[in-house]
Fold:
Amino acid sequence: MKATVRRFVCLLPFVLAFAAGASSNPAIPLQVEIGYLGRDYPEPLPISLVEPVITDQGVQGARLGVSDNLATGRFLNQSYHLDEQITPKDGDIVADAKALLQSTRLLLADLEPEDLLRLADLPEARDAVIINVRTSDDDLRGVNCRRNVFHVAPSWAMRADALAQYMAWKRWNTWFLLRGATKEDIHYANAMKRAAKKFGSTIAEERTITFDPGNRRSETGHQQIQAQIPMLTQSPPPHDIVFAADTDETFGEYLLWRTSVPKPVAGTHGLVAVAWHRAYEQYGGVQLQNRFLAMAKRQMTERDYMAWLAARVFGEAVTRSGKADISSLRAYLLSKDFQVAGFKGQGMSFRSWDRQLRQPIILTGPRSLVSMSPQEGFLHQKHLTDTLGIDAPETACKLPG
Structure:
């Protein structure tokens, strides 16, 4: 017994030294590098001086998302870093993408459709996980879908279906559709026509608006608009609501209070269908709004939210799976186990057939929440949120496996 005690006493300094060394050299943290790739696209100018010019949409949301990942990662021995790359208007998006892909295969893509496809089709991006945080283009979830591209941005079809469900609930079933001439306007208008057919509404007339507001900030600008909008909307067929597809901000804002027939407005203006809005505060959303305001010194935009959510998707996947390799993360994102919280009252997951994040859509006016879709009474066999957008039987996306 005494010999055993003596041996323990002799070994005690070595035990203590080992323990001290172990505490001063903890296990190496799991390093998670997230890339953010954007481009300096031309943005519509604010309609009035009331709206500030924002030059850092998207990236600020990504920064907050990575910060939230770090807050959780500290307890799990995980470390997150955001590598930002904003390509100038005349810059080489392919070269910047290749440089970013040298450091990470986890990317947040704040890109228009053409640039997003350029990124996705790079050989270097073959095994990447790219999350689209900007474009609503339905073709990117359909005929132009890619195995390595996931979408947290709602599609045009999801936005249109969210509004159409509300119109069905209100029994405003006859629409007067006004659209601009851009590709995005046409895509949203097509999604509205599809949604009308899907939910039992009718497009009484579709009219293309080519409108130059001129110097809308001049002293007489409002008088010119006041005279022009009634002329552009005169003699419409009977309708319950005006639907506007004006992504370029040329005429949509001027429809309210100025149409020849007094009707409510929805679409890109009036009642809008969005992933996020500064007026949203349900399900603890005000907490996210306040944290973003404290960090960025401005309100959170929809693109900020989508970039934040994409960063949280990566953080949630790494935390829940305990892995950071690309093949494991991709498999986990598409599994039944994956869900990400987004302050919308439910966990959100990716559709297996087109990599679209299923999520409730906010319907809001300029300053207050109106509703959230899916609306009550619209049912689905598996997920109520799959009543919004393209469901599995109708998808044009053909991915291996």
Q: What stands out?
A: The domain at 157-274 is CATH 3.40.50.2300 (Rossmann fold).
